[in-house]
Design a protein that fits this description.
Right-handed parallel beta-helix repeat-containing protein, 25-stranded parallel beta sheet, mainly beta, elongated, Pectate Lyase C-like, Choice_anch_Q_dom, about 45% strand, Pectin_lyase_fold/virulence
């Protein structure tokens, strides 16, 4: 039986080779190649940093084979593009060309493209381009345009801040590899308008003090370094876990974050246990969004949040275990799209004594019917209060009214839409979110004028009866 099978396979193999040997190669100028795209764009890349790889297909849809006398990079190595044709890199050794490439009729060829762009000595991204030319045996030339935008960045590698230091990235992006460590006793100031791009698995470790000094018209942005896309519709910047996040260690106090957008980290911010009589972190008019771990994790720390959005995290958007916390006019929304096992939006515990936690004028919502979890440890202080807020949780009993005053409990009649109705856009398919209030939101005109801040997350004045959450409608 095995001999018969071997004979059949050999016969088919010989027939296949015979077909190939009999292939007629066209020299007609009417027969051309077809491409999966006319322009191959590698989007924006940082100069001198290799891009990710992109590919495209070449098809021969004619009734005869086509032979390419050569496939070549028009500019050689001048623009930084690298091309692999049928396993062959086009380089200086082969004159940046592949010769005698054959495509049988109905056949296809996949070509891979990368780029490492040179420094362009300009503040804004500069377009770079090249042509990949297909010289057919018929004399016909076809070409595919290769393009990218090259962006010069200030590069920081394993920065150890031992003395007071200011990072000012207002004129060009800052690319961080190896992370930033702020030593005990040292202060790092990040100036308004700075945009920091962190490589994966690195972030900011704070043993000293961090001041992020954005303004309403010139925010600080801290994000991952990938500028390309996972899919055509999905930039890596919308994927969680792209970098490590910001970690405040036990020795760190007096930190401040103002007008800052922190997104697509693993943990957005982590605060380690410390002396709760000293303020560890004050966050105002900021955003923590799309984290693969926690948005804000505070363990036995003294923190304050004002006009801040914390949204879409695999673990809790806010996790507080003991210490002290004041949270006012914040939007805390759990619509994390990448895992249905996402945790609740807001969790507070007393494994460490919860000395005091006050939540005012805040919106706590998400997909699930209950987005609030509180857990008391026997013998530990558990002091908290929610007031003038909207919370997606079942109505508490009358006996708990001392902890919940003037709270609106979201109806759970339509669990799929009630939470989403608050916001301008909740688009899980494209991972696009806009947590500004929609006209349908019950948060409009529901805050307490005496305790709400006078402006919102964007610096917009709160006039009349203010709205619950970080944003005024």
């Amino acid at each position: 039986m095995n001999k018969i099978i071997t004979f059949i396979l050999l016969t088919f193999g010989l027939l296949f080779l015979s077909c190939n040997d009999d292939e007629r190669f066209s020299t007609s100028t009417a027969d051309k190649l077809t491409f999966s795209g006319d322009i191959i764009s590698l989007d924006t890349v940082f100069s001198t940093i290799p891009s990710s790889t992109k590919s495209f297909w070449v098809y021969n849809k004619n009734n005869a084979g086509i032979r390419c006398s050569n496939i070549r990079l028009e500019s050689g190595n001048q623009t930084g593009f690298r091309v692999n044709v049928n396993g062959l890199y086009l380089n200086s050794t082969n004159g940046y060309r592949a010769n005698d490439v054959m495509l049988y009729h109905g056949d296809s060829l996949r070509i891979f493209v990368e780029v490492t762009s040179p420094v362009n000595n300009e503040v804004t991204p500069k377009k770079i381009s090249d042509n990949l030319i297909f010289q057919l045996e018929s004399g016909v030339e076809q070409n595919i345009k290769l393009q990218a935008w090259s962006w010069d960045a200030t590069k920081i590698s394993s920065l150890h801040v031992n003395n007071d230091t200011t990072i000012d990235g207002s004129s060009r992006p800052i690319l961080v590899s190896g992370g930033i460590t702020i030593a005990k006793g040292a202060v790092l100031n990040i100036a308004a308008g700075s945009v920091l791009y962190f490589d994966s698995a690195v972030g900011i470790d704070v043993y000293g003090r961090l001041h992020i000094e954005g303004r309403s018209d010139n925010e600080v942005v801290i994000r991952g370094s990938r500028l390309d896309k996972m899919f055509d519709y999905l930039p890596y910047d919308r994927m969680s876990g792209q970098w490590k996040g910001v970690h405040f260690y036990e020795s760190s106090y007096g930190n401040s974050i103002k007008y800052c957008d922190i997104h697509s980290a693993f943990n957005g911010i982590v605060c380690d246990s410390s002396d709760v009589d000293n303020v560890k972190l004050n966050i105002e008019e900021s955003t923590i969004h799309n984290c693969q771990g926690y948005g804000l994790k505070s363990v036995n720390s003294n923190i304050a949040l004002l006009n801040t959005q914390i949204t879409n995290t695999l673990n809790n958007c806010i996790y507080i275990d003991g210490g002290k916390a004041i949270i006012n006019a914040c939007t805390i929304a759990q619509f994390y799209p990448f895992d249905s096992n996402r945790d609740v939006a807001f969790c507070f515990l007393s494994n460490h004594a919860l000395k005091s936690m006050s939540v005012y004028n805040s919106l706590i919502t998400g997909y699930a019917d209950d987005q609030l979890y509180g857990g008391k440890t026997a013998g530990k202080d558990f002091n908290y209060k929610f007031s003038n807020s909207i919370i997606r949780t079942p109505v508490v009993s009358t006996s708990d009214s001392v902890y919940f005053s003037n709270v609106i409990y979201e109806s759970t009649v339509n669990a799929d839409s009630v939470g989403k109705n608050h916001f301008v856009k909740i688009d899980a398919d494209n991972q696009y979110y806009d947590f500004h209030l929609s006209a349908k939101s019950a948060a409009i005109n529901k805050a307490d004028k005496t305790t709400a801040p006078t402006s919102d997350r964007n610096g917009k004045k709160r006039i009349g009866i203010p709205d619950v959450g970080a944003y005024e409608y």
